[in-house]
Amino acid sequence: MNDEQCDTPHILRYCGLRATLQTSWTESNPGRRFFSCSKYRQRGCGFFLWHDPELSERSKTIINELKMHNKKLKLEINELKKCTSYEGTGDYNDVLDDGNNNHVIMQLRDEICSLNRKFRIAIAVVVCIWIVMMSMWLM
With 70 as the cut, is the pLDDT of residue 92 above it? Predict the structure, then answer.
């Protein structure tokens, strides 16, 4: 049970157990909380009661747009993380604080990928030089 549920009233379901507080993330009720049977997706007792009042259409639109924007940012973060081939590259959350940095993000992603390629080539050159030096030393 989370803190939010501790602050809510004890509402009993049809079966006599306490209803759980859930949050809807559908387009028609984004972020709206409701009480339900904990087995509402299965064959529970069928109890359902809204906790929050219905949102205005403007609020629904804003929340849904924020959800979509958040999803896009998470995908961009995952793409940036995929470009890095080793762990020491840092965190990109600071770059993504402002949602209007798409051009900067694209440039940084290209630069990171380019630097990673150069890093891998440098490692390969160092390994080759080391092999040549070892073979010359052993002869």
Answer: no
